[in-house]
Amino acid sequence: MKSYKNIFFQIIIILLCILFFGFLINNLIINLIRTDLGFNFSWLLKPSSFALAEHVLPYSPSDSYAWALLIGWLNSLKVIFISLFLSTILGTIIGLSSAGNNILLKITSAFYVTIIRQTPLLLQLMFWYFVGFLGLKNNFIYFSNILKINNQGIEFFGLTLTSEFSALIIGLSVFTSAFIAEVIRGGIISVPKGQWESFRSLGLSERNGLLRVIMPQALPAIIPGLTSQYLNLAKNSTLAIAIGYSDIYAINDTIINQTGRAIECFIILLLTFLILNLLITNLMETINKFINKKKIYLS
Amino acid sequence: MNTIIKVKNISKSYSKGLLALDKVSLKVNQGKVLVIMGPSGSGKSTLIRTFNGLETFDTGEIDILGIKINSNYNERRIQKIRKRVGMVFQQFNLFPHLSILDNITLAPLNVQKRSRVDAEEFGMYLLQKMGISMHAEKYPSQLSGGEQQRVAIARALALKPELLLFDEPTSALDPERINEVLDVMRKLAQEGMTMVVVTHEINFAKDVSDQILFMDSGKVIETSTPDIFFSNAKHERSRKFLNQLDK
Ligand SMILES: Nc1ncnc2c1ncn2[C@@H]1O[C@H](COP(=O)(O)OP(=O)(O)OP(=O)(O)O)[C@@H](O)[C@H]1O
Ligand SMILES: [Mg+2]
Hints:
The complex is a heterodimer. By secondary structure, chain A is mostly helical. In chain A, 70% of the residues lie in helices and 5% in strands. Chain A has helices spanning 2-35, 65-99, 103-118, 121-133, 163-189, 193-201, 206-236, 248-259, 262-294; strands at 141-143, 147-150, 153-156, 159-162. The mean pLDDT of chain A is 90. Chain B is an alpha/beta fold. Chain B folds into two domains: 3-84 and 162-246, P-loop containing nucleotide triphosphate hydrolases (Rossmann fold); 95-160, no CATH class. Chain B has helices spanning 44-50, 75-82, 100-110, 116-129, 145-157, 175-190, 202-208, 226-232, 236-246, and strands spanning 3-12, 21-29, 33-37, 59-64, 67-69, 85-88, 163-167, 195-198, 211-216, 219-224. In chain B, a hairpin with a 2-residue loop joins strand 9 and strand 10. The chains are: A mainly alpha, B alpha/beta.
């Protein structure tokens, strides 16, 4: 009797699901007909006719929408990978400090992690942009031609970083580093205390012991957490739009406004993000396997 | 005769009030075996761990191999001591991510900067001596407790220490595995290794030790030769403890 009841409920739930998606698809079709746009990607080849302040490759408004999207992706990847690198270094330092023995470092890092994790990223980005950069004087830091920091951004050995880009990098790196620090700390304290005593009793330095004994054992606990922080970082980078940096999301947004191709644009955005995140996940798994197989911590 | 360990009046409390070590003094000469006995919580582990700086203490002074340490934690001196003193733990504490041979060569390679060929050759020699050379390529989790503890002893010997510390090396072993570890320790003692051993193994203490140090509540109650300690202990507290062990 009971199993019949189960099957009955399952059928009802499946029917409800079909009904729900049918409703959504119906909506979509009605909208497509109403806007008279149809569903195609040929518009991608038309000129975008908007300017972009930041582009890695040559770009002008006469270039196609497709090219603009590619520029957007390159801008995004630039931000994501630089932040990923910086947040990992910063997060590791803070994570190690909070797992170590030095009380002052422990308190400082706990304070850092708490403050950063408890406030919204959007707020922090606004802070770095409006308070951090736009609030700066004309020559806030000026070392002849080597390093200039002012309200226009950062100039370092002739390499110019706009204030939007700099604020975004700093904001994302600082925010993500606090989460990474917790992941690192969690991994380290998951290693039994006996392992520390063991390497110490063998005369290994703290640095050597951490590198060759503790970290290799902490890594299986760290890698999944790290991966998920990297995925978050990639997704969080779309907040760039709030401070006017032209990342993929901001450019997508502009294109939707110009062409009304919301559905196609969202599909592009979804698929490209999916691919990026699958790449990050795979890369992390490869790194993990490589470390374990090659035993690089021994050499 | 060279003095290897000289402990003068050391005290330690973890939290205010209770003393884990209470004015402990002792001396161990070269080639001698000191066995430390005492009830649970009497401070045996705390004491033996101060010898290589795994534990700090509040007052007093320790002289290990001529290197003096006191309540001020001196990283450099403790590091010097650790390079010359080996330690074996109750829970083996092998490095699970490294093969048996890598466990043993880790310190020679990184602390003494020996060549890999050198370190591995000596590592294999030690494994042979411990009777487990066939396991060199395996990982700790693939070995029995007794085998793991013998690897731990080989690892402690890899730096050619002048003093070996054992904190209940057989307490985590199955009864039928205890002797294979004790036999190895007997052999080391015969070869003239200076050793401090925290253990409840009466037969080992009787046969191998030169001195028994009995502790209770952080205090040294008595220090005697094994003959006297096991037949005619000076102190009432020691006799009580031995009676309980016999049961
Ligand atoms: N990390 C610590 N923090 C606080 N108290 C501790 C700590 N380690 C040991 N103690 C206390 O110090 C005293 C001595 O402990 P110790 O571990 O040296 O005893 P032990 O003789 O080795 O006992 P066992 O035979 O159970 O191993 C005990 O009262 C114990 O509770
Ligand atoms: Mg103990």
